[in-house]
Amino acid sequence: MSSSTDPSQVPGGLVWFDEPPPPRATEQLSREKVVAAAIAVADAELRGDVTMRAVAARLGVRSPMALYRYVGSKDGLVDLMVDEVYGEIDVPPAGDWRECLHGLGCSTWDAVRRHPWFARLAFSRPPLGPHALATYDAALAGLAGLRLDAATRMGFIDTVLGQALASGLALLEERAMRERVGLLTDEQLGAAARPYLERITAEGRYPHFIAWANDPGRFQQPPNSFEQVLQWLLDGLARLADDRA
User: Fold this and answer.
1) Tetracycline repressor TetR C-terminal domain spans which residues (predicted)?
2) 0.85 exceeded by the pTM?
């Protein structure tokens, strides 16, 4: 195969395509240590931004270039970080397909809340690492009893994963926005918005929104929690499965 068609030679190619494996671990550096340090840096950053310099500093390594021997590239590091979080996702054993997807969704949501950056980076690279493939394989096994075509089975899985990742992405961006504008709590946001809401209330504009904004019950737990939305999705998928069957 020529270098022009060899995936390992394509800029930004997936780390899983790379040969040979990373060099022997040292007391200070290994692929696992680099990935763990990068995840710690991402967890601490507002939007999960990671630089090789920050990872090197966390590891106590003078030159960031030393890290590339273990991860190949910045894209390779992202591949490894994302796949490490996929390894935290638990899929219930094959049996009831709905329980399988419910467990997949809830476990992914838990992982996203631990690592909000995962929701952003998971969309940026193809999920072909060993942990990601194991997650998809287990989920597909849970759907094996349904008489559905391959595209529909994967569509079910992507619908559940997509909801968890999209919810996580919204969480990540809201957290960054609140930090940027200095309104970290709902109380601070409400206080800042009060003069504006009072003005548009007096003007009589947006009456339905104003009625909601002035309702004290709006602070109660909304029905569109992740768990509830997931149940709605599964209800819809169940009807689709029955129709396809």
Assistant:
1) 92-239
2) no
